[in-house]
User: What shape does this take?
Amino acid sequence: MKCVYATTCLLACSFLLNAQPSLGQSGDKLIQTHVDAARAAAGKDHAFIFGRLCEGPIKAVKASPVTGAVPEALASTDPARQWYAEPSRVFDDLFFLGQTAFSVWGLRTSAGIILVDSIFDYSVEAEVIEGLRKLGIDPAEIRYVIISHAHGDHSGGAGILQQHGARIVMSAADWDLYEAGKDKIKAKRDIVATDGMEIKLGDSKVHVYLTPGHTHGTISTVLPVHENGQAHVAALWGGTLFNFKGTPEDPLDQRLKDYAASAVHFQQVTQAAGADILLSNHTAYDGTTLKLPMLAQRKPGDANPYIIGKDAVHRYLKVAEECAIAAGLVESASH
Ligand SMILES: [Zn+2]
Assistant: This one.
């Protein structure tokens, strides 16, 4: 049972893969243009998101395949719990508290911890609560949990963290989605995120943005972090795959248009914020599966592989935008 969500989230838009409509030459050309734009934006460093999000359009127009494999999950260190990954400090004040394939990020401010995401009900105690203890931090410091979106791999542990005293933040649309779900330990509706909302804790200000697409209430987050005392800004894109189905009331092409518009919105706010670090809530998309092992081997003076620069942050979100447009064109052509 525990693999159900993982499978759902890792199966890239199978409905798009199966649909290979006849698009016509001009339609094909336009889709190809957006696939090419996404491929150029992806470069070598963002091949994983390009491969996942543009998989349907690539097949539809028979574009060149994606190159550059990235491990899909971190290595587990616990044979009895294959999903278990070790907690780790990534910046002075930012911690990885996730499992092998799903991330929880913890920002430690002067007045407590802000988490992004809560992973599953079965793993949150081991990874987040015990993980903080392993790092020498009291889990009672957790103040807020920003849930990027109400799918079980990100919101499943929210009720348990609320029992530990944390305030839970979700968008209105995803509180609705969450409340319709079947979690055994369910968080009570708490803070409702709005676009651009500031969450201030101690000396830190985190901002959340409504970026509908992956769910109707997906939240993306901008976090201030520090590397050897130097200020940096991290951008966390809150929902990635196009693994949603259209309905007459909620058509797929509009959903993909919303997704592309959200990617543009987040490009604008992250550029304005000077974001030079890109984070994901799945360990493959932001290269955590490569970067955490690199950090573990890091020697004094080596660069932090998570600091990728403003251009690379922008290119990641450009891949999301261009693949959403291309997938939308494939979808429109299928009618
Ligand atoms: Zn999801």
